[in-house]
């Protein structure tokens, strides 16, 4: 496709205290295989108290397609990231919005690859994102978790079953965004990408998932168990709004470990066989996904992933009812 055939794109980026990662993200956004005249990078500073604003101002002075806004007012009682993105969408000039996060590293083909997903009826599309593997078990298991989840999203897409969006690597057409009234009408949520996705799909727009090597983008893995739990508890907020046909398998997965322990008390052989059969299927799936996405370094953890998944899911299920607030970017938000 010729450069003139691509629509003008607006990249929306909400930032808060991102001094350690922001420059890398901006550099990858500027190093795209489209001329910078074909896209704008609109950034909303959400009350940063570190050097984030100075970094933004330096980049905006150097690059004409970077626009920086300090977000102070709340639109329709929105808070946090949803409020910032609502402001940025009002400033955007593009026919297509691309959303990402400051801890992301985007490949040079990111914009063009994401645009290639769009068909006439497409309203929203997920890119392909992975926590960057580093050879350490904690980070690499997170990478496998993301790969497995996106593999499942891709499989469900073949049956036209919508699940969720990934806000760190997301395309939304302006027409689809406007058709649901934007974030102002959707309202506040700590899982703003999930709710935007559900509203757009409910309006009749089609969705896409980029589960392939053409749109690889890397995020940073969580560095501690507490940070990982906080991230996943926030995601659970959105998951609980899924239809029962999608929610019940997630609940069963979270309960699988305690059910297995109870079964072991009555029939150790059946319990061991139930664990071994599931472990074998999941481990082989990890091998398949790791190879087909070009992440062969993750193969050494294939046998550990299911244990990690079972334990993490059960702990989150235990924690969620007692968690009154969701912590995010140094702020606390009440569960809705």
Task: Write up what this structure looks like.
- It is a single chain.
- This protein is α/β, with parallel strands linked by helices.
- It has a 7-stranded mixed sheet, with helices on both faces. Strands 6-9 form a two-stranded parallel sheet.
- Strand 2, helix 2 and strand 3 form a beta-alpha-beta unit.
- Helix 5 crosses helix 11, helix 10 packs across helix 12 and helix 11 crosses helix 12.
- The longest helix has 25 residues.
- The chain is globular, with a radius of gyration of 20 Å.
- The model has no long low-confidence stretch (mean pLDDT 93).
**How does the helix and strand content classify structurally?**
alpha/beta
- Helix tally? 12
Shape: globular
Low-confidence stretches: none
CATH fold group of the largest domain: Spore Coat Polysaccharide Biosynthesis Protein SpsA, Chain A
Radius of gyration: 20 Å
Distance between the termini: 45 Å
Give the percentage of residues in beta strands: 15-25%
Order of strands in the sheet with most strands: 3-2-1-4-7-5-8
Helix and strand run = EHEHEHEHEEHEHHHEEHHHHEE
Question: What is the overall pLDDT average?
Answer: 93
Please summarize the sheet with the most strands.
7 strands, mixed
What is the CATH superfamily of the largest domain?
Spore Coat Polysaccharide Biosynthesis Protein SpsA, Chain A
The count of β-strands is 11
Number of domains: 2
Task: Look at the structure and give the CATH class of the largest domain.
Answer: Alpha Beta
């Amino acid at each position: 496709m010729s450069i003139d055939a691509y629509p003008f794109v607006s990249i929306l980026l909400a930032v808060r205290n991102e001094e350690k990662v922001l420059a890398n993200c901006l550099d990858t956004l500027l190093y795209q295989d489209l001329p910078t005249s074909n896209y704008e990078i609109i950034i909303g500073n959400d009350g940063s108290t570190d050097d984030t604003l100075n970094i933004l101002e330096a980049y905006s002075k150097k690059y004409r397609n970077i626009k920086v806004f300090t977000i102070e007012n709340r639109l329709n009682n929105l808070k946090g990231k949803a409020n910032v993105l609502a402001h940025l969408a009002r400033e955007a000039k593009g026919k297509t919005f691309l959303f990402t996060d400051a801890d992301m590293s985007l490949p040079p083909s990111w914009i063009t690859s994401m645009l290639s997903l769009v068909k006439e009826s497409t309203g929203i599309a997920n890119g392909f994102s992975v926590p960057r593997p580093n050879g350490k078990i904690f980070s690499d298991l997170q990478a496998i978790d993301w790969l497995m989840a996106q593999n499942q999203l891709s499989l469900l897409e073949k049956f036209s079953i919508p699940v969720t969006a990934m806000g760190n690597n997301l395309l939304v057409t302006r027409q689809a965004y406007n058709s649901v009234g934007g974030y102002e009408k959707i309202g506040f949520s700590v899982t703003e990408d999930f709710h935007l996705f559900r509203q757009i799909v409910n309006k009749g727009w089609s969705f896409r998932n980029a589960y392939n090597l053409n749109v690889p983008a890397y995020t940073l893995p969580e560095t501690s168990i507490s940070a990982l739990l906080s991230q996943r508890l926030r995601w659970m907020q959105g998951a609980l709004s899924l239809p029962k046909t999608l929610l019940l398998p997630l609940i069963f997965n979270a309960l699988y470990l305690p059910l297995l322990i109870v079964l072991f008390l009555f029939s150790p052989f059946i319990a061991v066989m139930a664990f071994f059969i599931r472990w074998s299927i999941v481990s082989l799936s990890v091998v398949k996904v790791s190879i087909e996405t070009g992440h062969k370094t993750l193969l050494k953890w294939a046998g550990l992933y299911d244990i990690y998944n079972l334990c993490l899911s059960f702990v989150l299920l235990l924690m969620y009812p007692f968690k009154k607030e969701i912590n995010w970017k140094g702020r606390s938000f009440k569960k809705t």
